[in-house]
Amino acid sequence: MTVVVPRTSDKEVRQEAKSLESVGKKLVASKKVARSYLHKNGFIRKDGKLTKKYGG
């Protein structure tokens, strides 16, 4: 079995990196937004402590 993986162009890589950077800046712009993201994705509990999966 052969798997063909398309190569991403440099332009696409730059666009993706720029997009991710933009999202990252929005997440850390507000402590409330950052905590909400971390809680929603299972990194922290409601009280702000790490979940067991991440060392809490």
UniProtKB/TrEMBL annotation:
Source species: Puniceicoccus vermicola
Entry superkingdom: Bacteria
Protein name (database record): Uncharacterized protein
